[in-house]
Structure formats: C-alpha cells, structure tokens
Amino acid sequence: MTLGQKLTGLIALAIFAVSVMAMLAQYKLVTGDLAARQQALVQSDLDGFAALYDQRRVIAVRQAIEFRKISDPGQDLFAILLDRDGVVLAATHLDWPDAAGKPLAGETLAPRAFTEGGTRYLGIARGLPGGFALMVGRNATSTEQTSAQMRRIIWMACLAIAIAALILGQIASRMILTRLNRINALADEVAAGDLSARLPGPPAADEFGKLEHHIHHMLDQIEALHRATHHLSDTVAHEMRTPLTRIQTRLARLKTDNADTEALQGEIRSTIRIFDSLLEIARAEAMTGESKGPEMLDLSILLAEVCELYEPVAETRGIRFATEIQDSAMVLGDRNLIAQLVSNLLENALKFTPTGQSVLVALTDTPDRYLMRVEDTGPGLPIGFGAQIFERFSRAGSDPNAPGHGLGMALVKAVALRHGAKLALPGVKKGFAIEIAWPKLAENQ
Amino acid sequence: MTDPARVLIIEDDATTAREMSAFLSAEGFAPEVCVTLHDGLDRAATHSFDAIVLDRMLPGGDGIDAIATLRTTCPGARVLVVSALGRATNRIEGLDRGADDYLPKPFEPGELSARIRALLRRNDAVGTDLLAFGALQIRIKARTVHAGDDHIPLSPREFDLLVFFAQNTGDLVTRMQLLEHVWNLHFDPQTNVVDVHVSRLRRKLEAALPHPVLHTSRGLGYIFDPNAAPQDA
Asked: CB neighbours (10 Å) of residue A109?
C-alpha cells in the first residue's frame, strides 16, 4: 500500500467516523424525545382514566372507553378494562394484549410496545384499587415511521459522506504527495549525478518549504565539498606534473640514448600512472561524470576489442587465451573506464598465469544481468586473501618487486560500483576467477 | 623553403614555456609565448597562427573553455591542448570540447613537435588513397599493402597501425598515441601491450622489405621511416 493510499484511507475514515457519530447522536436524541412524548401522552391518558375511576367508579370508566371507541374511528387510542376475574368490562379493541402483562392492584407496569389489529401501540397497564386492570395505549405508528425515515436518511447520508470523504482524502493526500514527489524527484536527479539540481521557485512558507530549504542547503554543502575535492585533485595533478615536465624536458636535452634514460622515463611514467589511477578511482567513486554521463555501449564489442589487444601478449607468453563472448550486450556506461577495468583484469590474469596455463574471458546473458567472467589457471590468491584485493595498494603476491602498485583491482571495484555492477570472486579448483554482473540496459531507455 | 609554421604557446609555467619555445625553434617552428589566457586570446585574435599549444589551468581560466573562441578568432589554427590534467577523463573531455589533440604533461619534447607536425599535416592527408614509400605501397580504401608486387597480409588492426605510422612518417609516435588512434582507448596500461602488436607488424614488413622501416625510440615509442635506411646505406 502506498503512502498516498494510506493517507487517503486515513483521512476518509476520519471524516466518515466523525460524521456518522454526529448523525447517530442526533438520531438517538430525536427518537428518545419522540418516545418520551408518546409515553407522557399515554401516561396522562392513563391518569385521566384512573382519576375517573377514583371519582365515579367503574361505570364511568366503562362509559369513557365506549365513548372513545365511538369517537375515535382512527383507533389512535387503545384502552381496555378487566374485572378481577379477567373478564373484559370495556375495550376499544377485543383483548388484553398478552405482551403487556397483568398488573396487581395498585401497581403501574412499565410502558410496553405491542401490536394489536395490525397497529403498533405503546401502552401502560395499571391495577386499579378493587382488582380492576386498566390498560391505556396510543398509536405508535407515526413515531416509528419517523424513526425509520430518519434511519433511511442516515444511511443515504453515510453513503454520500463516504464518497465525499474519499474524494477529500484523495485531494488532501495528493496535496502532500505532490510536494513529497517534488523532493523525491530532486533526490533522484542528485543520485543520478547532477549535484547542481535544485527545485525551481522559492520554497513555500510551510513545513515542506522548510524541508526543501534544508535539502538545498545540504546540497550546496555537498557541491562545495565536491568542487573542493575536484579542485584538490586537479591541483595535485598540476603541481606534480609540472616539475615532472621540466625533468623530462631536461632529460631529453641530455641526448643520451641509454638504458638509464629509458629507466628514468619509465619511472616518470609509472609515477604518473599511480596518481592517475588514484584520481580515476576517486572519480569513479564520486560517481559523477566530469565530461559526459554514461553512454550506451555494447559490452561484447568493447570486451572483444580489449581481448584482441591482449591476445598477442598471451601468445608470446605461451598462455592459452580463450574467449566466449556472446553478441549484443547493451549497457549504460563510460567506455574508457570499462575498457580500463577489463584491461586491468587481463593484465592481472596474464601477469600471474605461468606459461602453459590458460586464461578464459567470457560474457554470458543471464535473465537480469550480463555476466563477465575472467578466469585463469594460475596460482590463484594466497590463502586467506579475499576481498582485500580490492583495497588500494593491496598486492596478492608476496614479492614486493613484482610489477604493479596494487591499484588495478581497486580501480576494477570502483568502476564496477560506479556502473551498478556486482563483483564476485567465485571459488575455482585451480587459479583465480572474478565475475562482474553488469546491469542490463532497460528496454525503454 | 616555406615559411616556418607559426605556433602560439599559451602556458603559464615560465620554465616550461621557455623550454617548449626553445625546442620548437630548434625543430624549425616559429613559436611565440603568452603566459595568461587573456594575452593568448588577444594575440590569437590579431595574428594568424598555424597551431596553438594551449595549457588548461591558466591564470584567467581553463584553456578548453577558450577553444570555441579561438576557432572564430583564429580560424585555421590547429589546437593542441597540453595539460597537467592528463587523466583519461580529462583527455576525452578536451577532445569532446573541440581540441584537435591532447597531450598530457609530462611529455617528451619530441612528442610535442611530432604531434604538432601531425596536426599540420592533417589537411594534406585527406583524400589520399595511395601512400607509397619506395617499394612499400599502402592502399587505404582497398586496405591492402604491397612490397613491390608482393602482397603483405596484415590483420585489420595491423593495417590500421601501419596507416597511422605512415601518416606520421619520420615523426616519433608514442604508445599512447597508438592506443588512442588505433584502439580508441584513452588509458595507459601497465604493460607495453602495444609493443607486441608493433613487433608483429614489424616482422611482417621486414620479411617482405629489404630493410627495416619501423624503428624503436628507446622508452618513448616508434619512428616509421622507410627512406632513412637506404639513404644512410
């Protein structure tokens, strides 16, 4: 369930509950009042008959009942008088209703509702002094009809309120969600690498405006830090390369074409390479494209190209070099960085694999990713050496004079992560294997 | 004898600028130096140059931001960016922004002059189908190479290598240049992986030709010069 649905539901439920409770309270009040009036009316009728009995005895009461029977054809009134044996002395209707119960002398029963001749009545029974039982009632049909009508209205109102509440909830939640989505869209843009993305327009003077203001402030700080880091690495590169340029220029002027000069040039190149690698790792880790964002490229073509570059190297070293690259693997990525990743993997494989052994490069299509695998039958990693090969300056070989600076695999990791690829070191019986699972380019991109 | 090619050097490090200027003079260019971007742009707007050597982190701004301006104020000048921002990313960025070539610092002076010459030659090479060096004949469209009447079978990559060498005849070609132009890869691999490819090409050429045509320049790269050997001999 999304936040929007939850919010809509919650708001709608709150509106509905309050409205229904208010209507129920009103219903109770009105029906209670109607019932009380009806009861008071019956009570006063009963009191009237009882007073008649007190003053003029049974005969007067009988006459009054007979009179009412004639004068009230609508049968709104119900009255019945029994003698002490239960024989009807006078009645507007035929019988004493069983539901009403029989009072003892001097006792007044609680009001009861009953049906007589298809009509609803509310009646009160009283035992008159001398053993007579008197019951007086009033037609309750109109009161009950009013209540029923009220209930009908309440049902319809509930339905209307439920619909209105849902619509209101939807509107209210959309107001909140629109604001939230605005901020989410900004976060997506920033995550995609655009640190300069900001929300358009001034922030509103509410809590969301405050949140936008805070996020903008944070982004400003991140951007400033990011710029400072870039500036620092550019400055480091500049400050280091400028003196090296002078050294190299003077070295060239010595006009000595010997092994020392070549070695010195090699050292300069190697120094530069360390710095370049560190800076490229830092850049890949920062995940932002300096020149252009990731481009669409075919991983299989790129992999084949780099393999073609290294294939003769393997051949001259007497290493069997095999490729199993399947066609057409489109991904989004930085071509040069991925080429460098593949190059580093192949350099490592060729460096550690002895003559007569083999290196296999494969690219296979799996349901959700393209799986790149570089495997060799060399000595493999030393025991206990695992994920730390991806640390900067970590070297698997114990020989400190072996070529390399331990930055190759750090760059591999940084480039893979920058492209959202997953790294794995699957165990193999003999040698070393690494798998990189590249996210596929979505069909609609 | 044609006039020496005029080269404008926009470089803020005075020592480097002086060295570059001295070296380019010795190589037969007519260099001029400006130490700020502003001066350089002024100079380029009022005088004509064949090539501009442009630094990036200059007082007054980044050189590559000025490439578009240079294109209008000094049309016809080739722009070679020479910068301490030498990582692959920086180089690709420079080329994307319109630089004709990008040489990272530190560089071998011979490579600077070679790259400038290569840029100046670029116009001449367009439309040429046959590159002939004595017995060695390269047909670009047909992608064939002959030594006299004998066909030299080359792999596609070896052919591209040879064409790049031939287009830079007599000049130093570095391994980085080969990686960039032949393989379109902009990084410096640990091993000299390019050497193996060049050796293969060299073996095939030497088997067919009477004398070596590809010379190794120790620690730097290669020079393709099919005419040198017979003249010396």
From this structure: 17
